[in-house]
From TrEMBL:
Keywords: ATP-binding, Nucleotide-binding, Transport. The keyword ATP-binding applies. Residues 1-32 are annotated as: Disordered. PANTHER family: PROTEIN TRIGALACTOSYLDIACYLGLYCEROL 3, CHLOROPLASTIC. It comes from Chitinophaga sancti. Residues 1-30 have a biased composition (Basic and acidic residues). Signal peptide: none annotated. GO terms for molecular function: ATP binding; ATP hydrolysis activity. Residues 41-278 form the ABC transporter domain. It comes from the Bacteria. SUPFAM superfamilies: P-loop containing nucleoside triphosphate hydrolases. This is ATP-binding cassette domain-containing protein.
């Protein structure tokens, strides 16, 4: 592996910390919490097993404010398990996991709930309720998590979220009335409506045709730039990786083995890494 073009994971460059900006009404972060060093997620020696199968062997990762990291790896390598641990859906066996400067294992239930409101998770399916209209799907987290009851505020937030993904006219439709790409957009809008600082994407373009997949990838970048979120994106879609990634991390056998830009990794003489870019 050429050290000149591909950096080992532990040597990933620090991203320059941006100075805090005045929060506008359109920003996702109502109450932004960013550590002084700009690292919004820090993972050290994370391990996770299911029975005798050790899926995560020694995961180390830093996600900086405003950064998009794409994680590449073959099926069954534990890519999705990593972000499920970050989102609090799975509990790691060992290691240290910090989100927005707070170590997850040290938080009580109320503190954990607060941190979770700052993390958006877009599932492969979009995770929409088929029995609810698009409006009701987006209102659900607002009423349940943020306890918003005012109808005018609910409508404004729902319309703004749908407008940001280009689907304002779909507000009273049901998920079954929408195409796969439209459902992905609605799922993204519902995730963003809670105004998270961190976005976790699990195969955001799976099941989509190439044109729609590109549109979703470009939308991810547009929303990241507009709302100044940070993101980890799990994908096997190389066009998606090229469009969305500031940095790519390659995963193999339960560990992150290399990191770099798309172009740096594409030139790797390492066959394992290079195979992704053929």
């Amino acid at each position: 592996m050429e050290q000149a073009t591909i950096k080992k994971f532990e040597d990933a460059p620090e991203k320059e910390t941006e100075q805090p900006k005045d929060t506008a009404e359109t920003k996702l972060q109502d109450t932004e919490q960013v550590p002084e060093d700009g690292v919004v997620i820090r993972i050290e020696h994370l391990k996770k097993s299911f029975g005798d199968n050790q899926v995560l062997k020694d995961i180390n990762l830093e996600l900086h404010k405003g950064e998009n990291i794409v994680v590449l790896g073959r099926s069954g390598q534990g890519k999705s398990v990593t972000i499920q641990c970050i989102a609090g859906l799975l509990e790691p066996d060992e290691g240290k996991l910090e989100v927005l400067g707070k170590e997850i294992s040290s938080l009580n239930e109320d503190e954990l709930k607060e941190i979770r409101t700052k993390i958006g998770f877009l599932f492969q399916s979009g995770a929409l309720y088929d029995s609810m209209t698009v409006r009701e799907n987006l209102e659900f987290p607002l009423t349940r998590v943020l306890q918003i009851k005012d109808k005018a505020e609910l409508t404004k937030r729902v319309e703004d979220a749908l407008d940001s993904v280009g689907l304002k006219d779909a507000i009273d439709k049901y998920p079954s009335d929408l195409s796969g790409g439209m459902r992905k957009r609605v799922g993204l809008a519902r995730t963003l409506i809670l105004r998270p600082q961190i976005m976790l994407y699990d195969e955001p373009t799976t099941g989509l045709d190439p044109i729609t997949a590109r549109e979703i990838s470009e939308l991810i970048v547009t929303l990241q730039e507009k709302y100044e979120t940070s993101a980890i994106i799990i994908t096997h879609d190389m066009p998606c990786a090229r469009i969305t990634a500031d940095r790519i991390v390659v995963m193999n056998d339960g560990e992150y083995i290399a990191t770099g830009t798309y172009d740096e990794l594409a030139k790797s003489p390492d066959e394992l890494i290079n195979n992704f870019f053929k």
